[in-house]
């Protein structure tokens, strides 16, 4: 078995490389991780999100969401969260414990918004908040925008609904699955230098 699966420092470096690649490559399995948090009524809620940014120096993972969505209220109540990644080709699972921070109408959200394409900005122009009930199957986008993108000027009205969720990595549970021998490594990221601990898979 190569050092990729035996040396903690090499494993940690490769984790960061994979996450960086996943931001740029829409086809990468890590591009759409599962994000989980605790709801106000103490239930676990999970959904797939799009990985938009990875800061490998500060160990922060970002995704975008609608500020009106229920997860915002949940995260305001409890900022602890998890992100789950799995690549069936390389058979590596990452369970990442994070602490989430909400950015809306500030410098972080503005910078991300400026780089957001019109097709994506359209998602924040819905007339009703996400999870609202509706009498018919629809996405809530105004009728005149069905099948087309808004103008840049019109898209700006959606900025107030746009949020960046910044997820600070606290712990990584790395699992490699192989018939000849599974490997599992826990990486504590709460201090300046990561602390490694081998676990039985």
Any overview of this molecule?
The chain is α+β, with helices and mostly antiparallel strands and 201 residues long. Helix content is 20%, strand content 33%. It has helices at 8-24, 70-77, 107-114, 118-121, 152-155; strands at 34-38, 44-48, 53-55, 60-66, 80-87, 92-103, 162-176, 183-188, 195-199. Strands 1, 2, 3, 4, 5, 6, 7, 8 and 9 form a nine-stranded antiparallel beta sheet that branches.
Produce a short descriptive summary.
The protein has 201 residues and is an alpha+beta fold. The protein is built from five helices and nine strands.
Features:
alpha+beta; 201 residues; elongated; 9-stranded antiparallel sheet; 5 helices; Pnp Oxidase, Chain A; 20% helix
Layout of helices and strands:
Layout: H1 8-24, E1 34-38, E2 44-48, E3 53-55, E4 60-66, H2 70-77, E5 80-87, E6 92-103, H3 107-114, H4 118-121, H5 152-155, E7 162-176, E8 183-188, E9 195-199
Q: What is the highest CATH level, the class?
A: Mainly Beta
Give the overall form.
elongated
Helix fraction, binned, reads 10-25%
CATH architecture: Roll
> Taking all residues together, what is the mean pLDDT?
95
Main sheet specs: 9 strands, antiparallel
| Strand residues, percent | 25-35%
Radius of gyration: 19 Å
């Amino acid at each position: 078995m190569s050092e990729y699966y035996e040396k903690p420092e090499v494993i940690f470096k490769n984790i960061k490389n994979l996450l960086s690649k996943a931001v740029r490559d829409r086809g990468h399995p890590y591009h759409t991780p599962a994000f989980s948090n605790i709801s106000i009524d103490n239930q676990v809620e999970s959904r797939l999100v799009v990985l938009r940014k990875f800061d490998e120096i500060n160990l922060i993972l970002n995704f975008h969401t609608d500020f009106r969505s229920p997860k915002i209220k949940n995260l305001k109540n409890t900022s602890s969260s998890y992100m789950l990644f799995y690549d069936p080709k390389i058979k590596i699972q990452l369970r990442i414990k994070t602490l989430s921070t909400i950015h809306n109408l500030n410098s972080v959200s503005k910078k991300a918004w400026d780089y957001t394409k019109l097709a994506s900005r359209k998602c924040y122009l819905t007339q009703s908040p996400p999870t609202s009930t509706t009498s018919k199957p629809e996405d809530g986008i105004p009728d005149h925008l069905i099948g087309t993108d808004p103008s840049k000027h019109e898209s700006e009205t959606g900025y107030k609904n746009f949020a960046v969720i910044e997820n600070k990595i606290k712990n990584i549970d790395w699992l490699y699955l192989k018939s000849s021998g599974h490997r599992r490594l826990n990486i504590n990221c709460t201090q300046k230098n990561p602390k490694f601990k081998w676990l039985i898979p």
